[in-house]
Every structure is written in C-alpha cells, then in structure tokens.
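Recall that a protein's primary structure is simply its ordered list of amino acids. Everything else, from secondary elements to tertiary packing, is in principle encoded there. The following example makes that idea concrete.
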Amino acid sequence: MSEKKYPIITISREYCAGGRSIARGLEEKLGIPFYDRDFVKKTSEASGYSEEDIRKDGEQVNRAERFVTNLLNPVTYESASDGIYKAQKKVIMELSNEPCIIIGRCSNVILKEAGVPVFRIFLYSDLEHRLKRAAEIAENGNMDLKKYLAKRDDRRAYYYKTYTGHPFGDYHDCDISLNTGALGYEKCVDILADAIRSISE
C-alpha cells in the first residue's frame, strides 16, 4: 500500500467506454482495490437479493415498478430497485472507510453528499469505439448493437436521475472527464493516476 492517502475514486461511464479496464489499471498503478464482484457479493449480503439480481438490476430501474412505487406509499412499499439501491448505498459508505475504486451506482453523488473525500471520474467515448467494444463483449443477444447501446445508456441515465435527481454525465458531478476512445485506455490510466497522486496527501 502506498504511503499516500488517496481519496475514494468513483468512475461513472457510458456503456462500453472502458470503466472496468481503467479501474483495473488504476488499481495496479495506485495499489488500491477496485470493487466489482466483491461489491455485488457485499450488496447481496446486505439486501437479501441474489447476486444475479444485483448484477442485472444494480444500475437500472424498472419503469413499471417505479410507477407502482409512486402510486403506493413508499413507506410501506419498497420496490426491488429501491431495496438494492439502499443496500448498495450502505456498502458504498462502508467501503469508503479505506481508499478504493468504485464504479457507478451513483457513488460519486452519494459520497460527495456524505462529505467523503472523493475523486470523481466520468468516462465517455465516440459511438464507433463503443460499438466495437460492445461487439467484443457481445451482451446484446439478438438485438442490433446500436439499439442495445442506446438501451443500456437510457437505463443507466434513468437510474442515475431517479436516485440522484441529476442528469447523467453532468460535469458538476465529476472532477475530470475523459474521452477513452480518443485517448486510449493506457493514456487515460496514466492521466488519472498522475492527477490522483497530485491531490493526495
């Protein structure tokens, strides 16, 4: 572990803009953990929902479910999305006791509002780069790649707006924003690592 005291690092990103790749690069460069599978496991333990449900619904809100929640008394009715979000928020706060890297899940806003020292990253890229990456990942099933990309972006934006009240990608919610397609992942990791070291104790 480095002698430097790093802030919590959060990464918000467009779908297929390289969030996990860059998180792994920062983990290696800075020597601080990146939570991905462990985060899902911790959220499952905190919420009672399965790891599969959390992987599937961890950053999306079912619009029909949201409509029902708004109709009913939220004090007595909690949707699966709300339950998972609350559990994720609890895990984010627990993880923030030590330097780490957290991807998505509104962690940038949650930690900022809690007064936790945080370095907030937003990653985006051009459509061509993201489509190429989406083709490599092949999570679209039989759906057209462009339509699938738009669907994933829409879900992520709706989730973010639902739980933060902010538009997804708002520059007010990040400290640095990088075009991963134009710069390349390695260059982004170098830029971010240097920036984080420069502001750390």
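The radius of gyration is 17 Å. The longest helix spans residues 145-164.
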